[in-house]
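Researcher: Can you fold this with fe (ii) ion in place?
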Amino acid sequence: MPATTESLELIQTVEPDIRALMETHKERREHWYAHEVVPWEQGRSFRDEPWDESQATISRPVRTALILNLLTEDNLPYYHARIAGIFPDDSAMAEWSKLWTAEEGQHAIAIRDFLLTSRNCDPRSLEDDRLATVTRGWRIGFTDPVDIFNYTSAQELATRVSHRNAGVHADDPIAYEVMNRVAVDENHHFMFYRGVTTAMLREAPSLVLKSLRQVLTNFSMPGTEIPNFQRRAVEIARTGIYNLRVHAEQVVQPLLRYWKIGEITGLDAEASEAQEELMGITGTLIEQAERFEARLARRKRT
Ligand SMILES: [Fe+2]
Ligand SMILES: [Fe+2]
């Protein structure tokens, strides 16, 4: 949905909150250096010793997750363009989007360096996939800034969960550390965006609830443009790194609880409907997750 006057005014109203959240972020986040966690000592020449799958030390589904997460990070130019493009140059958000982009930029560097030095990906197909992904680009279905904040709140939390779980499932202390550093960053970003949504809810609950309904009922992670996205997503879902249950229990439900969506009063009729629908999302997702899990269990038995 394009930006409405009401949304633009709301963003102006919460500008002091955006500044305060950015200052808190700057104080709280400690910068880290990818070269200190990447195992450079393991690096070997791909010219002398071409890649072969037998060199990989991490299981195939977890490698799929690490690669999908990396390719998603590689599309950063489009995320920057989408966010920076809708806010005036002298706004707090213009400043934030530059800082956020600078911090996000290290994620692809760290994950790629880890995968290459540890030989847990085919460098050639990784580069082919990166090229295909970035050439396709990324479009988000909405340009309204209220939608953007609501989307990024959920997306940064989802990314945090996905990076962290990939690190845990890798069963490799260095992979764990790399992914944990990245996940900590995503958590800082998540707290910023969630804080903006909290401030917007305080000022204009009806408007924000309608937007949240739109964003959370049709939520999809950036990354759908990645080659073979569907096949990779199913492989990752099976591992439990990220699937519908994780999305319901670790992303949607905690957000709705944090914002106390069910307790908001004084809403207009449409927003009350949105509130009801929002409160049903977790249940619907869990039902879908149970069907997926049942199919998986049947397949395992046969
Ligand atoms: Fe990231
Ligand atoms: Fe992020």
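Model: Folded with fe (ii) ion in place. The pocket of fe (ii) ion (ligand 2) is lined by residues 104, 156, 159, 186, 189 (CB under 6 Å).
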